[in-house]
Description:
CATH architecture: 3-Layer(aba) Sandwich
CATH superfamily: Glutaredoxin
Low-confidence stretches: none
Number of helices: 6
Structural class: alpha+beta
Strand content: 25-35%
Radius of gyration: 16 Å
CATH class: Alpha Beta
CATH topology: Glutaredoxin
Shape: globular
Strand order of the largest sheet: 2-1-5-4-3-8-9
Amino acid sequence: MALTIPRLGKSAPLFEGDIVRYDSRKKEIIYDKISLVNIIADKQWTVLFFYPRDFSSLCPTEIHSFNRRFKDFEKANAVLIGCSTDSTYSHKAWMQKPRTKGGIDKLSYPLLADPSLKISTSYGVLQREFGQAVRGTFIINDEGILLSIVMNPTWIGRSVDETVRTLQALQTGKSCPAGWRPGRKTF
Length: 187
């Protein structure tokens, strides 16, 4: 079965679901809910990225790269969300485990659980035969319009720096040349 990918410039597929996040005030990992409708209502952008599996060897490299750039997403008024087909229980166990023992420790952003496969299916990233997502990154503006789609196979990690750059470029509302950075000329 071929993947059906959402269309650029169209409304992003709506999602809502259970997340696991680190609550810095309570100093604990908690279960919570998230929805694209609420993010849009708060006039925030969304960067939703899918990864194949918790407790894998390649995924933590991306998880930590996104975490290192978290302040850049926050500065851009963007909600950063990681998503896999794993359960919230798996996400929590992975966050509770130290990095030195194969865990990811506390993150600044939430991990969304998609054990029903509905979200990964609606975003066209599900590899049904494996029950996991490919590495898809989606940037959605504050009106719910999908403005960027990047997909990599499961064995190739993405560039978080490029995700941040693309988000910043999109937010200018102008044409940006290759390698554009904030403060440089736009068209």
